[in-house]
Amino acid sequence: MRKGRNISKRWLLIALVASLSGCYPDESLNIPEKDNDVTLTELDEYIEEHFTEEYDMAIRYRYVDRYVATGERVTPPRLEVVRPMLDFIEKYWIDPYLEVTNGEVFFRGHVPPEIIFLGGFIYNPDGTVTLGSADAGSRITFTNVNAIDPEDLDWRELQLQTVYHEFAHTVHQRYKLPASFETITTAGYTSAGSWYNLTDDEALIRGFVSPYATSSPNEDFAETVAFYLFDPEFDAHFITLEEDCGTAECEAQNTGKEFIAEKLAAITGHYKKVTGIDLTELRNVIQSKL
Ligand SMILES: [Zn+2]
């Protein structure tokens, strides 16, 4: 087992202070190895064994303001929600990858080295709130962990949408977007910072699963993967065409759905080709756990 570096350093410091102040006899500097272990909490041991050693993935739940940009306000999670949150990401994110064909090799080869748990949301200087984030595949941040309730659909969807979205970014970062992906709905992308002016329905008519997906082809890719994996009603919402359209809006929605179907086909083909993973198999495994 590898020791937490901070903890060993803290012991060194205590030992140094003790020797300088002469409070303890010299023998106290020979701290037996097993005594060092008591400074690792049971939670730290669990994280070390199940995440850090197992996947090379660090879980940050203390001093979280180190992991956000200057000016962003965050709080760390309460200690008692950390273990349930670990169980949650294991069940709905890690396990499904381990269970599908070619999924384990992919997961282990693309794990983000850092996972951050925040107690609440990220409050930005401009007054907006960030729900979740990822930095170029190196870090995934979960927000609102203090409100953990896997049975609460809204809470669960926020977490799953975040992690599937962020993890999907690793695919285009490593292997590019599917060929011609950005040409499927070229005209539908929004100019910088204006995606939030669209409604869900306007996004659908343009051929996107969400307003945020219109912000760039990369976000479109990640959003489409995320919705496909977590939304039990994905087909009804985004694929199945209305047969008896009586209105122009209904016809426009059908056109949007045809674009989404085209994107999904490009994405599933790309996953199969570059990762060996059948995204539909992954979706089925995830859906069976919900
Ligand atoms: Zn994104």
Structure notes:
The protein has 3 domains: 1-40; 42-173, Collagenase (Catalytic Domain), CATH 3.40.390.70; 176-275, 3-Layer(aba) Sandwich (Collagenase (Catalytic Domain)). The chain contains 11 helices and 6 strands. With 290 residues, it is of the alpha/beta class. It is globular, with a radius of gyration of 23 Å. The protein has helices spanning 5-21, 33-37, 42-55, 79-99, 103-110, 153-175, 200-206, 217-230, 234-239, 248-275, 279-289, and strands at residues 58-60, 114-117, 122-123, 129-130, 132-134, 139-142. Zinc ion (ZN) is lined by residues 165, 169, 219, 222. This is Substrate import-associated zinc metallohydrolase lipoprotein. It comes from Marinoscillum luteum. It holds the Pfam family Peptidase_Mx1.
Please sum up the structure shown.
This is Substrate import-associated zinc metallohydrolase lipoprotein. The protein has 290 residues and is an alpha/beta fold.
List keywords for this structure.
single chain, 290 residues, alpha/beta, Collagenase (Catalytic Domain), 3 domains, 4-stranded mixed β-sheet, two-stranded antiparallel ribbon, 6 strands, disordered N terminus, binds zinc ion
Explain the layout of strands and helices.
Layout: H1 5-21, H2 33-37, H3 42-55, E1 58-60, H4 79-99, H5 103-110, E2 114-117, E3 122-123, E4 129-130, E5 132-134, E6 139-142, H6 153-175, H7 200-206, H8 217-230, H9 234-239, H10 248-275, H11 279-289
Parallel strand pairs: 1-2, 2-6
Antiparallel strand pairs: 3-4, 5-6
Helix pairs in contact: 4-5, 4-11, 6-8, 7-10, 8-10, 8-11
This protein binds zinc ion.
